[in-house]
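User: For documentation purposes, I need each entry recorded in a consistent format: the amino acid sequence on its own, followed directly by the corresponding structure tokens. There are two entries in this batch. Please keep commentary to a minimum and don't merge the entries.

Assistant: Recorded as requested. Entry 1:
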Amino acid sequence: MQALFEIGATRSLSYTYSMLQLSGALLNRPVLSLRTGTRIATTQQAIINPNNLKVEGFYCQDSKERKKQLVLLYQDIRDLIPQGMVVNDHDSLVEPSELVRLQDILALNFTLTGKQVVTISGSKLGKVADYATETTTMFVQKIYVTQSLLKNLTGGNLGVDRTQIVEITNRKIIIQDLAGTIPARAGAMA
């Protein structure tokens, strides 16, 4: 338990820097109690608000009652350490029905991965394979698109910044048209 407090004490220094984490670093992670120093739950799925791409919290599997699904709100996370997410205690986990303000978001059951990504002009780019979240604000900053096999051979995977996103629907994410590349032999203008 002492090690948990020592690691948490360094958070004030690292907290001032924003850090991007891929979804895999936030999902299927232990939720640790600062009070008891034990695992109280495991994160399972992010609760993402599609209106602003903010991770509002996580669905968690309770360690006490394995079949019970609880919600951990992002503001209740005290620290992110290599061992998992640190919260005050088990009371930080709540029943989904108790979250009155988030009921509309919970009802959407929005998931980012697997959504088709298209441009405004209608070009299909692929599907969202992963996303990166800024851990200080919990906003999704980038989505990573896996392109079709033909496009993948020529262009690789595509990273899309949140500023390029125009619209998010239930089935797809619409982004700005990609800028054309400048030919390598184009000369500079004086």
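Entry 2:
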Amino acid sequence: MQRQFTAIRLNINHSIHIGSHRAEYDDSDSILHSDSFYSAIIAAWAVLGVDHPVFDVPQNEIPRDLDLGFTISSLFPFFREKAKAKPLYFFPVPKPGPNASKPRCFRDVKWLSTTPFKNYLQTGQINETAGEIKDLFFTTASRLDPKFMRSEVQPRAYVPRLHEADTDTEIYYIERLFFQEHCGLFGLATFDNDDIRAKVLLALDYLQDAGIGTDRNVGHGQFSYDPLDAFDHFADLPDSDHALNLSMFLPESQRQLTDMLDSKQCCCDLSKRGGWITTDGLLSYRKDSVYMFREGGVFKTKQLTAGGTVNLRPVSVLGHGDPVLRVGRSVFLPIKV
């Protein structure tokens, strides 16, 4: 089966902070998770007045199988030496971990570039050739700690507002990710038609100035994006009864989840997703939370895309403003287990 994807490449202009599973600012994730990217696109559509069926759904009746017309992976790092150079894409190591004769050599590996990642999908292991070792992305300085992506933890000060006269100034720390010029984050996408593709491009036009991630009001998360082009590296992957998810995945139903976990080879991690409502007037309210499967899990499925959507707006504020959607539709790739 042919798998045609479109590559979305965001060149991070300055810095970005991506909220992690921890509440503290001093820890930034290195993945822009797909559910956050979906939310950013939908929010951009709302600001721009884009006509899309998602805005016609009654906010208290969000269907679990809501289809936006496109599916995206989470956004992972890519490296490019100069503007016209061929990008080197990195994918997260699958949850089962590297299968090699010398596993200790790979225990610090967090990312695989396209070639070893594809070999892993086809064979279930990493080829320990010299050329392939160079394409691994390690997380410790003793290895090939990447210079194209670095982090800095910097102090910030929270100054009390006028109505907080009894509150002291508070010092906190924030971790920011910086990318070398022409580098940044990329994701894979599929579009149902050219119309929905054009609407996603409109959202990217808005978001490149508005920013993505956390603390956008102080300049974090601004980017420029490359023209969308075809990503055909996975077009010839052989079919399999198992697949690996590249997005935050939320099953559409209990039956789907049961079927997709009905294998001894299944291996996955859960992550609690929630946060604060960002709508004016409701900033003090927390969203409801939902558990989703993290990128890199192995499931029993032949589907290329799957996943559901939920409304995380708390019952106490239902009826006030738009629904708070958490989209868990994921890109899947067949994997040999």
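Summary note for entry 2:
The chain has one domain: 5-334.
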